[in-house]
User: Fold these one by one.
Assistant:
Number 1:
Amino acid sequence: MDIHSIFETIAYNIDKEISKELLPTLPSCFRQVPFYMGLPRLGMRGQYRCSCMNLHAYDFEDHWEIHKDKNNPFTQPIEHLAEDAPNVLAAVIGAAVVGALGIGYLVSRRPKSEKKGKRDRE
């Protein structure tokens, strides 16, 4: 089977499971990336990206799970988060909002003596 025909059928953001019997190794355009470059999955042994086709592959013992991204996370990180990983973007924004609210609450709860400058206390 032609390798290119396998990858042509992969849709945007929808994982396609490909048996390692059919595809024992990934083509040379795939490079291993750190675990934080995608959502970890139970049983995953690693993950790879092919920038020339915007493919993201998860490595499992007996198969690959591969999907196509609309945007390359290395060259278009904001667009990638917005279109290809909106759940990650939402989590980052949510964490920032909660952190800002928490800091605001802590600052508002400080005793008045701590809010004044050093000169005011002397």
Number 2:
Amino acid sequence: MNSDFREDEMGEFGSTTSLLASSLLTSFRSSRNDWKNLLRFPLTLSTSPTILTKRKAPLPAQDEMNEFQFEQCCDDVDKCACLSRKNSYTINDDNCNRNNRNEDSISNSEYNNGTSTCNKVKAVPYNLVKFSDVPAYLQFNQYVLTGYRPPNLSFLGCIKSLAYLHNETVNILTHVISVVIFGILMPSLIPWNEVRHPLLAYTVIIGSISSWVGSSIYHLFMNYEGGEKFYTTLLQWDVTGIWVTQAVGAATTIYTSVVLYDDWVRILLISTYILLSLFALRDSLLARCAWSRILGFGSLFLVRMVAFVLRLAAVDSANGEGSPLIHIVAQEVIPIIGSLLSATRVPERWFPGRLDYGFNSHNLMHVLVVVGAFHMHAAARADLLWLARVEEEIMTISPSRRMQSLLFT
């Protein structure tokens, strides 16, 4: 410890013995108090000040530090700003650069004769950091500059982050609340007594909430202490949930669009959609960026567009056959708009740092995805009721359609 601290300068020594003795006595008393504070440090973290004086040796390298990392040292005197990398305590100096401080967790410092006194205080659990302070795998939006939760949070720390505002709060709550509301209300909004294809009805429910479940888990635990490997697993869960929405959630729309066509048309389109869904899952899980994931689902979108054209030719939506076209179009267009906003980082790229906590592209995408799911549910409900009305007619036209109908019953 002698290598870390040295005693305060005593001023110029006088030529007389009495002045020398007085100075030595004063230094001894000051040093004794400093050592007492240092020895009592583990027991008095939140109440007792720690006296930091000039260091004899330079600051250690980052990999040599244990609990604390000294972020900045001022040039002229022994001022320093310290930040806990373990999110347990913080030390900061009031006279150093305020840009490197969290104003909510800083205690004022006193300077007496060149000695810096930094109060060591317990860090609040919502000690947020900047874009430059998080690992590279969490730096996916360079226009969101602040409001990041510290990396390496425990499981309980991630759960507690629900109680304070950070730049993932909107992303988490939009989908957590949607899962609760849709999970409770959606089953009651489906007329089960009139539906002849309950399997299709379940695909609507699963397809609506699956992406929200994966997204909520991903955004809540993305700062978990498991590191990049655990983050990658969370991202794959999120992408898998999106895939379920894209592939399974659209089953009712695809089936209804071709139900009036010949067997070979229906079998060809449905089989193609199932096959491309598997390829889309593979490509999306292996994607390295948002654009790659969007393109991975592009093939499914093209098949749904073919089904939409076939629907226009065979199903008279204007006369109450199937779902109104507004829901069919909206369930596709609205989420696509959200995905494009998220991929292009609009609007935060025009206002860097100003939309960190809300109204940035990912927040908007989450809201638009929920709106798109509402239209998907409305479209599927109308299609299921229409299928129930024409079911008897469909089964009398062709025995093969009777068999296909049984598969979805």
Number 3:
Amino acid sequence: MSDREDLLNEAKRLTTGDRMDTYGPPVENHEHIATIASAITGRHISAQDVAIVLIATKLARRQHSPLHADSYVDLMAYAGILFEIEANAAMEDVSDDETTTGDNSDSTDPLNRHRIRDVG
């Protein structure tokens, strides 16, 4: 197995196992962090913002220690969490559109931007 595969597997293990057991589901955790950060700053901070700041933190730390594997594992994990947050938000947008229009056909979104499809 390559180093890349090892790092990806570790990111998966942490976000679906150890850390999820300790901190709860990652998306819910990021939403909770966003709520706290919003209260502290008095500005709206989203779960997406939280994931992006955590990615930025790991990128900044990588500048000092470019071969520290944990930084790459966490980058991969945060990128996956960000994708999950975005996917959930897109699905909520589609659901809201369908509820508002009463139409669940693709005609409610002619560009089909908010749909996640299996292309495989």
Number 4:
Amino acid sequence: MPRGARYVGIAAESSRAGAACPTFTLTETFGYTFGMDVNNTGAPAAHLHRIQEVAAETGLTPRSIRYYEEMGLLAPAARSEGAYRLYDADDLERLRFIAGLRNDAGFSLAEIGQLLEDEHARQRNRERFQATSDPAERRAVLTDALDRVERQISTLERKRERLGSMISDAERRRVHLRGHLDDVLAGRDPHHDPHHGNEPGQ
């Protein structure tokens, strides 16, 4: 099977789960890059890893890896004669990408799935646009691409708003705690502040 073909199949069969072929670049937004070539370039066969090795490499649990597969976000590169899942370097990179968005940026699996699908669609739309000179077809491609970008922007703006609110709350707590610390250093008793609703130490 050509490298990456299994992700194309997943995208076609599980679009609601957000699976996609990882022929995308999200470096500009998230700092992660996929460089998988969906065409077989004749490269040497990749080394395949058992799920326990993948878990050790990525810091994920085997249960999480299986769950991502169930959600349609991942497809093992192969299975052994004993039906054990086998993963290649592209699978590991994809898992690191998913884990980064999940753990570092706080994205839900549904949001991650949609981002993966949108990035796959971006590659697909580019190919469709280049393959036709029909104005109506090109207009449809560009409209779909624009709709997907608008959705990505909306998702990221909501994430930014939530993070901004969390930062503001943390900054207020910092000011409150510094006030208590100043009281302690000055030999004053830090009293409960009814405006903050927090006892000392909170």
